[in-house]
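Support case: user asked for a sample of complex input and structure output to validate their parser. Sending the pair below.
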Amino acid sequence: MSEPTIVRITTDPIDLNALQRAVTTPRDGAVVLFTGTVRGVTGAERTEKLEYEAYTEMAMAKLRQVADEMRAKFALIHGIALVQRVGEMAVGEPTVAVVVSAGHRGDGAFEAARYGIDRLKQIVPVWKKETRPDGSAWVEGDYVPSRGD
Amino acid sequence: MSEPTIVRITTDPIDLNALQRAVTTPRDGAVVLFTGTVRGVTGAERTEKLEYEAYTEMAMAKLRQVADEMRAKFALIHGIALVQRVGEMAVGEPTVAVVVSAGHRGDGAFEAARYGIDRLKQIVPVWKKETRPDGSAWVEGDYVPSRGD
Amino acid sequence: MVIKLFATLKDRAGAGEITVSAEGECTVAELRTRIAAQHPALAELVARSIVAVNREFAFNDDVVRATDEVALFPPVSGGCL
Amino acid sequence: MVIKLFATLKDRAGAGEITVSAEGECTVAELRTRIAAQHPALAELVARSIVAVNREFAFNDDVVRATDEVALFPPVSGGCL
């Protein structure tokens, strides 16, 4: 039976209903969706909006790699969707989605989704520029890839 | 800041986009959504449709209890939605949703969502009738509540 | 005393609720015995069914009063497959 | 050799790509030195930036050819906050 793998870099809003339908096969009884959202308040800091930029060609290749790693580590999962939105996003909007389907809720879909977002944030070349009341700046990550990433 | 708690027994289709928006507060950067779906194929068995029935008044009270338990166990989570759909559902459709928001993906939203669906399946009085090619039958669970459930 | 029925129990009884004659109060264990005696169609299922009183799980030595909301149902199977 | 720039590096250079004179091939380490020399605006950032060659992470002793797709960018910060 086919196991959908969807990877996408897009300026369109993320549609969780459509992603759930797209990854669910007839063998699936459980779907876990993680979505990152634009946080407006972090302690005393206020974020007004975020702008995401991708190195699209490499980001697509690295999203495929993340999906492959998820399948290698979590053998019982079925469908996978990894979607990174780029462009401007407002507070509360989903910026990224990691979606995993499986036959049962204990088949690793929760763990695979967590692994997927952790890995995506390490190796998929996407950056965000944060606009606060006092101006805007690129946010830098802290993961330095090594050979094999 | 307010922390949304949504509990719902409904015949309406489950709208994951609307639930994501409803639970996300300005402090949230991570939302985990679990959805159970009607599995059409289980080994050699074929399911055509499912019909869910609830003892609605008690189910609402028990959904609230599950939400309270989630907050007690996972102190850093913010919004919670627990939605059980009832009535007839076709293969692939979401039957239930457990949605949890938090500031960061490591703040327990994955674990809380997993706990929520496990607990919902133990103590929320909802039953399903499965229709297969050879007829339909109520599915019985195997959890027997004890005092404190 | 009116007892709400769900799932298999409702189908077996052919009704969403049944009435059991019980004056004043009784224990959940006694209630099970009366249901089995007065509604033979449920006799086989009643011992392993769950009793809820006022929307909380109830156990054999709990007391049920005529004014309580009482329900009888199988172990729950909702959520997802 | 054309080098794609992203995020802070693109802003600092004022362009999405720069050209670096390099004949034949060189190592990633040598490439960093040439970028710093030929594009002083990037000198401060180039040592701690990431180099990708043909859409894979590249390291200082890897070899870059003039026909490769080369990119320079900061540690990634996408996904979510």
